[in-house]
Amino acid sequence: MKDNRASARAQVLTPGVLLAATQAGCAAVVVVFTALFVGLWLDSVVGQRGLCTLGVLVASIPLSLWLMLKIALRVIKRTQVNLPIPEPPDPLVEED
Hints:
mainly alpha; 3 helices; 75% helix; elongated
C-alpha cells in the first residue's frame, strides 16, 4: 500500500510541477515584499502610519494571484502533449 502511494506521489511531483510551484511561490513573495516596501515608502512621504502600507498590501493580492495563475498556465501549456488523432475509416471503401 505504501508503494502505491509513493509511486503516485512521485508521478504528481514531477520536476515541472515543482518548478512551477517554486516560481509561483517566489513571485508571490517578491510581489508582497515589493508592496510592503512601496507602502512603507508612501507612509514616510505622506506622513501616515501604516495606512498606505496596508492599502498597498491589500491591492497587491490580486496582482499576486494573477501572476501565480499566469505562471501555472504557462507551465501547463508548455507540458501539454499533443497526441495524434486517428482518422476514422472511410465508409465508402470496402475491406476484403
